[in-house]
Design a protein that fits this description.
By secondary structure, the protein is of the alpha/beta class. The protein has a domain of 142 residues: HAD superfamily/HAD-like (Rossmann fold). The longest helix is centred in the C-terminal third of the chain and has 15 residues. The model has no long low-confidence stretch (mean pLDDT 96).
Length: 210
């Protein structure tokens, strides 16, 4: 049986942080973005509003800032090893995140078969962010279905990894899920739970559960 492993990024592959926070750190705007992360987690703003606000913060953003943020970010250990093993076993792996696509898509260089994020204009910005391209929790399920068609599998063949309410819909749509450093709102819905900083250990919880 071929499986599709679907990974969230913020708070999952990235330990205790998000891509926007790491990007903003390069601009000296970390505190402002942490506040936005807290607001969206509390349901005070929605993903399109969040995207519009970080876009406004990043008026001076350059490609060099993005590269530096990606390289300095606190990634879980052995991400590339896990994805190499998934490929070796004939399975597929993809990242689906609400964070900007220009950051998320860099993970294909680490071995992900696909990486989807919210559509942002190219860096440096010369146009606004289109709210219709901003992903939501429900969009993660839509993209998972798209990937299933692309890779010739079904939802029944999927494993989801996530940490927050943005993963709630996806966890409800697939049979196997791993709550990675997640809060109780999500971990109670997962089939497996992992706390730590090594993705291989989280993957081992499900690698034999076929």
């Amino acid at each position: 049986m071929t499986r599709l492993h679907l990974f969230d990024m913020d708070g999952t592959l990235l330990h205790a942080t998000s891509a926007p926070v790491e990007i903003s750190r390069q601009l000296g705007l970390e505190a402002e973005t942490v506040a936005l992360d807290q607001a969206i987690s509390a349901g005070l703003i929605d993903p399109p509003e969040y995207a519009a606000q970080v876009h406004a913060l990043w008026a001076e953003l350059t490609e060099a800032h993005v590269v530096a943020a990606f390289e300095a970010a606190p990634w879980l250990a052995r991400i590339r090893d896990v994805w190499a093993e998934i490929r070796r076993s004939g399975d597929y792996c993809a990242v689906v995140s609400l964070s900007p696509s220009f950051f998320v898509e860099r993970l294909t260089g680490w071995g992900a078969h696909a990486a989807h994020g919210s559509r942002f204009p190219a860096v440096p910005f010369t146009e606004p962010v289109d709210p219709t391209g901003v992903l939501t929790a429900a969009a993660k399920v839509r993209i998972a279905d798209q990937l299933c068609r692309e890779f010739g599998v079904t939802r029944a063949d999927c494993v989801a990894y996530g940490d927050s309410l943005s993963d709630l819909d996806l966890f409800g749509a697939v049979p196997v899920s791993v709550a990675v450093n997640a809060d109780s709102r999500l971990s109670g819905l997962a089939t497996h739970t992992y706390f730590g900083k090594d993705l291989w250990d989280a993957y081992e919880l499900v690698c034999d559960a076929r």
